[in-house]
Specification:
Layout lengths: L5 H50 L3 H5 L1 H14 L5 E2 L2 E4 L2 E4 L3 E2 L20
Antiparallel strand pairs: 1-4, 2-3
Length: about 120
C-alpha cells in the first residue's frame, strides 16, 4: 500500500476541520435559536394571560361563562396566532379545566369537548 502524500493529508485535514466547525456552529445556533423561541413563547403566553386576567375583576365575572367566552373570543380575534385558550379554576380538589375556547369555522363556543392530547403526550 502506498503512503498518502502530504497534499492528500492536508486536504483531508482541512475538509475534516471545516466539516467539524460547520457542525459545531450549526449545533450551537440551533440551541440558541430554540432557547430564544421558548423564551419568546413563554413571554407572549404570560402577556396574554395577564391581559385576560386584567379584564376579570371579580369572581362572578370569572364564573359567568358568557362573559368569559366573550373576553376569550375578543382575545382570539385580536391575536390571530393563538389557536385556543384554556381556563383553569382552582378549588378544594386542585385545578379543574374549563372547556377550551378555540377558533373554528363559526363562532367559538365554551361548550366544546375537552382537547385530547396525542398518544404519548401528557
Amino acid at each position: 500500500m502506498k503512503a498518502w502524500s502530504l497534499r492528500t493529508k492536508s486536504t483531508l485535514l482541512v475538509v475534516g476541520l471545516t466539516t467539524a466547525g460547520i457542525f459545531l456552529a450549526s449545533t450551537l445556533h440551533h440551541r440558541f435559536a430554540l432557547r430564544a423561541l421558548k423564551e419568546e413563547v413563554r413571554t407572549r403566553a404570560a402577556y396574554v394571560a395577564t391581559e385576560l386576567a386584567f379584564g376579570i375583576t371579580t369572581r362572578t365575572e370569572l364564573e359567568d361563562g358568557v362573559l368569559l367566552a366573550a373576553q376569550i373570543r375578543s382575545t382570539l380575534a385580536a391575536r390571530p396566532t393563538l389557536r385556543w385558550i384554556e381556563v383553569y379554576a382552582t378549588g378544594p380538589a386542585g385545578y379543574s379545566a374549563s372547556p377550551p375556547v378555540s377558533k373554528g369555522a363559526g363562532r367559538p363556543s365554551l361548550n366544546l369537548p375537552p382537547r385530547r392530547s396525542p398518544p404519548g403526550r401528557p
